[in-house]
Amino acid sequence: MTRRDFLNGVLIGSGAPLLGAARPSDAAWDGPGGVGDYRTSHGNSWKVLNTAHRIRDREFSAEELSAEDTAEVFDLVIVGGGMSGLGAALHFQQKRRPRHTCLILDNHAIFGGESKRNEFIVQGQRLMAPQGANEFNVPTDPASDGYEIFEQLKIPRRFEYQTSPEDLRELEFDRTNYGFQHWLHAPSFGHHVDGNWVRDFWKKHASESLRSWKYANRKYSDEEDYRPWLDTMTYKAYIENVMGLPSSVTRFADPILAAAMGLGCDALSAYAAHQVGLPGFAGLSGKASFPIEFADVPETEWHMFPGGNTGLARYIVKQLVPESIPGGRSLDTVINGRINFRALDRPRNSFRLRLSSTVVRVGQTEKHATVTYLKDGRLRQVRAHGVVMACGSWVSKHIVQDLTPEKRTAFQSFHHSSVLVFNVAVKHWRFLYDLGITSARWTGGFGFSCNVRRQMITPRYRPPFSPDSPNVITFYVPLFYPGLAAAEQGFKGRQEMLSTPFAGYEEQIRDQLQSLFGPSAVKAIAGIILNRWGHAYVNPAPGFYFGRGNKPAPPDVIRAPLGRVTFAHSELNGHQFWLGAMREGRRAVDQLQKL
After folding, report:
1. CA 153 to CA 137: how far, in whole Å?
2. Helix (H, G, I), strand (E, B) or coil at 143
3. Closest CA to 81 of 568, 561, 421, 588
4. How deeply is 11 buried, as exposed, middle or buried, from its count of CB atoms within 10 A (0-12, 13-18, 19+)?
5. Distance CA 318, CA 307 (A)
6. What are the structural domain ranges in the chain?
């Protein structure tokens, strides 16, 4: 289908008022989903989002819901099939007694949360790219906290990546979609400055103020534990008042922090910036400052499966339900095997995954917890000895009954913002190669960065690699608005995301590619998939991590069990990443086993 056909189809099918509507209809809003098992679940679909809004609007808040009792009783029910929920299930599998059972309820059509992938077929070649979460590093100590899954799941520690033909000049490629944004340095990571592309920005083009920020090594506090002090101020205050640098540095850092944690420097705690390795803290921590020279990156770091952290999610599900991905446990099988959806929820399974099932209410008595969920338009109910809430806190606060006043107050500190992830399949990327760049950063316009990668390869996934072969350009576009309060920024971003049809965002991506790389880039487009994540990030403001006014930190309040219900939100860590999410899931399971 050509772009013109798609746009005409949207307008004919939805009517002219679509573009001015507060919320487009589902087909016009979702856009194309690509091919493969993930084609019906890219980002938050219109269907998923609409059900979530019904929960928010208290449609299921009545004391007595008319729900079908499935007569099922599980030892553990996990709400959410992202990395925290899968981590909880994996830990329960290790700790459980014989015959103990577990049910994971997930509102999407496939497991993984934001650890999912998009797939394209371009010129007969299959290509993968992440919907959201990507990047992992191999542990030097396989027994370290959380990293033992590499041994447990038989995940390899060495990987093979695409190689270039010998007659092409060598360029540096970020293996992920994150590192080039700030943390890694290489000549091929390009910056658009005053209308021109420049290489080696930090060595040759950055201002003195930016270099003072980037390479700062001064110790700005004598506190033995400096972390609570950092949590008293925003990163903007730290840059401008503590480091004494101009606001231009803050504006440069804004999209980097927003891409990692949702909002810019004026809204987030300085400790949040410290968590993700932004500059200014080397003198405090004693660790070397970023950036890391590309040539110095150890082989154990900065890896990415072809579809991002979906690779980790698939390994875990294969462990929980071996028949979910037919075949053995090799990397090739886990990455490339088709999902056997029928195997996920078989009654004989000790571990079951029930997809497209949105939990709307969780109650409890002294004897059990009751979990009510919506599937195929019907309310159903199961019972459990314990429940782990591994969904988002913005959902938990509406569906878990009888929250304590302390928990309700703590949940008010959890503000969230959105991100858009675009995967643009191209028939070639020569327009980048001719510039000598593999990633791009710019100011103004739509988004702030994009890149192509050398992909991890397996025997059945070996796409050719040259400037004239297909690839995927990935854009992460955080929605943030410096100057507004954190809650206002999140609300404004979601309103923009909700009211913009796919066609509107498609135009902006095309215009941005045209502006950056010219008409050859637009002509090379083979397909675009948009992944919308409305509550992608928690936005930790000052006081989020260590509390304020002698009051406990909000995450610590939420981590406390509530009877038979425990909370494993990935947001409790502040910086949301796969290992932190899994640790929260493990902790929540351990708390239930103490009951």
Report:
1. 15
2. coil
3. 568
4. middle
5. 16
6. 52-113+342-412+550-593, 207-294
How far is residue 407 from each of residues 45, 398, 538, 558, measured CA to CA in Å?
29, 12, 16, 6
Q: Please state whether the peptide bond connecting residue 291 to the residue before it is cis, i.e. omega within 30 degrees of 0.
A: yes
Three-state SS string over 434-492 comes to CCCCCEEECCCCCCCEEECCCCEEECCECCCCCCCCCEEEEEEEECCCCCCCHHHHHHH
Of residues 454, 502, 373, the one with CA closest to residue 45: 502
Residue type, 73: V
Q: How many C-beta atoms lie closer than 10 Å to residue 349's C-beta?
A: 18
Please tell me the distance from the alpha carbon of residue 299 to that of residue 138, in angstroms, as a whole number: 8
Query: 172 near 187, Cβ under 8 Å?
Result: yes
Give me the CATH topology for the region 52-113+342-412+550-593.
Answer: FAD/NAD(P)-binding domain (3.50.50)
Q: What contacts 214, CB < 8 A, 6 or more positions away? A: 202, 206, 279, 289, 290, 291
CA-to-CA distance for 241 and 417, rounded, in angstroms?
A: 26
For the entire predicted model, the pTM comes to 0.93
Angle at 158 between CA 155 and CA 162, to 5 degrees: 115
Q: Tell me the per-residue pLDDT of 364-414, one tens digit each, with 9 for 90 and over.
A: 998 999 999 999 999 999 999 999 999 999 999 999 999 999 999 999 999
